[in-house]
Amino acid sequence: MQGKKAGLAKLLNDVADNNIYIYIYTIHCMVHKIQLVITQVFEKITGFKNHLESTINGIYSFYNDKSFKRKESFIKTAEELGNTFYEVNYIYSSRWVASKFNAVNRIRANYRSLVHNMQSIAEDNSYNTEISAKASGFRNTLLHPRFFVMLLFTLDVLQLVQKTSLQCQETSGSVIGKYCTFETLSQDLEKLKLENGEFVQNLISSGKC
Predict the structure, then answer these.
(1) Does 12 fall in a domain?
(2) To pair with 88 at 20 to 30 A between CA atoms, which of 60, 69, 163, 172?
(3) Residue 189: helix, strand or coil by DSSP?
(4) Residue 5 domain-assigned (yes or no)
(5) Cα separation of 135 and 92, whole Å?
């Protein structure tokens, strides 16, 4: 769109220069800017790309690739536990922030069902050794305190960023006003250094000594 040599704006300006003498100014989409920043930031966070994101995408593939048997087992486990079943999502680096938030939040919402089902598959002799080993590995990862805390903290961050992203997508409001939302986001993110966010705080509040 904004390529200097062959972008749409460049091609339109070439036509305008030759015919109607109007120059087209382009503004980089604010929502896209947020997405690019979030993608780059998370890539620099130790453990996110190669641990949290890879685990979530691995769980998605585990239930959706090749065999419906595992997914059917997952749905059945959720029903037996009296939990609502939520489809597990994949984290795509090119999608908007809301997509990332939903993918991470689905793991949280399915957490109890996931742990029980992974244990069930690991102990079920009808699955081959490779599948049982994967299920056992996912269960151990899900139960690791560091993984769970990182999951919740990521949700707290993405929830704030998602709010700003949605505000920038609204058709009403001024350009200056939308830039002010970035200032608010920066301040809210700074608060997470000193105060627990909603998801982490809920974990602490529900904890028992």
Answers:
(1) no
(2) 163
(3) helix
(4) no
(5) 23
